[in-house]
Amino acid sequence: xxxxxxxxxxxxxxxxxxxxxxxxxxxxxxxxxxxxxxxxxxxxxxxxxxxxxxxxxxxxxxxxxxxxxxxxxxxxxxxxxxxxxxxxxxxxxxxxxxxxxxxxxxxxxxxxxxxxxxxxxxxxxxxxxxxxxxxxxxxxx
Length: 141
Prior knowledge:
Mean pLDDT is 83; it is low at 1-14. Helix 1 (22-33) packs across helix 3 and helix 3 (88-97) crosses helix 6. The chain has one domain: Arc Repressor Mutant, subunit A (Orthogonal Bundle). By secondary structure, it is mostly helical. It contains six helices and two strands, in the order ααββαααα. The chain starts with 21 loop residues before the first helix and ends with a helix. A two-stranded antiparallel ribbon has the order 1-2.
């Protein structure tokens, strides 16, 4: 599934409705980045429904931002993804959105509603460009 598909509300037969939440996407990626081992595990985020987190993890896995193993149960609302690590793209993206100052600038410039409607690739590219400009400013380039 390409990243453009992440724009839609996702609903599997007999499952929950999930609208993409970029704050949750960021928290998932930061949580995976903070892992201290490469043991595959389910990702849980305090304050968020496990099914919503699981569906976001599934979308990030399908988009190529997470490495891991999937396990599906026919009656499940989503595939369980046992996350091992971030992929190369995942590391680049989380590196660009991990600095709170840059993330807040991106959110305030675009707005959370519009942010959720952009392709993940566009958000990643804009985040990396902002991080690059920030770094150049710090280096006086």
